[in-house]
Amino acid sequence: MWESPSPSRIRFPPLRMAGTGRLTAWFWSTDVWLPPGYTWDSLVQAQHFTYPNFSDAWTYPVIIAACFIALRYFILTPFVFTPIALALGVSSTHTRPPTPNATLEALFRRYRHQAPEEAVCEAAEVVNMTARQVERWLRQRASSARTTDVGKFCDLAWEAVYYSLYCVFGLVVLWDKPWLWDIRHCWYGFPEHEVDRDVWWYYMLALGYYWCMTTTHFFHYRRKDSTQLFIHHVLTILLITFSWACNFVRIGTLVLLVHECADIPMLLAKMCKLCGRRDLMDKFFVVFLLLWLSTRTGLYPLWIVSSTLFQAHVILQMWYPVYYIFNGMLLLLLLIHIGWTYLILRIVVRKLRDNQMEDVRSSTDASAEDDDLAHKKDT
Predict the structure, then answer these.
(1) 99-101-103 Cα angle (round to 5)
(2) Label partner for 99 (CA 20 to 30 A): which of 47, 117, 141, 257?
(3) Could you tell me if residue 349 is left (phi over 0), alpha (psi between -120 and 50 degrees) or otherwise beta?
(4) For residues 75 and 104, what is the distance between their CA atoms, to the nearest angstrom?
């Protein structure tokens, strides 16, 4: 079992951190977050079980995120992923940037390649160019700012390695846990649930990874689903953190388990596309589609969300505010899944109609297709 620090060192941080005052006490009110009859002090001082230490959720994951960033950018990317990408024939060609121009650079930083016609005409007069030349300059500048295929391959490889290892680790951790086989054990005896050492690591690694991905999110090229992906990361961090604070850890482990496996074949399909192996890409995409539909739109709503909505309150008589807070976040996560499912099904329709696979949940820039169309018009 996971051995927490001694009781004298364990205090629930939201109620103990200096300088937080009444606002923190109000936010972490026991009337909101805990079942009737419990207080934060009574839980953390209990002798018959160890309540999760809230400070773990904002200390260890930061360290883990820093380790992940160092491992990704200083070891795996330059010494493992890049050589593999080059050996597989992934293109490392980078578009040559246009001739430097301060006026057009300012226009690009403001609008990128989608500057309005009036702004393009004004800039054309200043730099003594035609509007068409300015538009070409902006498109070339946007193209030069995009990540190379090798860079995209490295990003995909990092995610594929993490999800693969984490998925296997999750199965190992949860295989002997009763709530994996009977989800009602997530609610029996709540909130007096012991957190095993392996479950502790399972939670901290996930939180560290999503902090890593959120921190580096804005340093990467903009994807078609960047906004949804960022919201997904932030929402996941909130769900993991609050579920840890309230000891909804058991249901949290199940949410994590069903969320990771579908991403693996999707990432492999994208990597195959960059390698020019569209035959393998199609096969991995089929696997991804089956896993996605069975987990994100199958197990997640029908097994997990249905339990939080219709079983938890019956077993626990849980009508206090945290019931609505967590179900609200879980339902928001489901809405994101539905939006992504819509995009994925568009791929299937396009494949059946045109016999051409194009990943809508793409690792390419959101502007890439627009640039390609514009270049075709120019030629």
Answers:
(1) 155
(2) 117
(3) alpha
(4) 37
**Amino acid identity for residue 281 in this structure:** M
CB neighbours of residue 263 within 10 Å: 22
- Pick from 251, 286, 67: nearest CA to 174: 251
pLDDT digits (tens, 9 = 90+) for 303-343: 999 999 999 988 987 667 888 999 999 999 899 899 989 98
What band does 69 get if pLDDT is binned at 50, 70 and 90?
Answer: very high
What sign results for the dihedral spanned by CA atoms 138, 143, 144, 145? positive
Kindly indicate the confidence band of residue 4, based on its pLDDT and cuts at 50, 70 and 90. very low
Residue type, 330: L
One-letter amino acid identity for 320? Y
Residue for token pair 């040559």: 96
d(CA 320, CA 254): 23
Q: What tokens were used for 66?
A: 């820093």
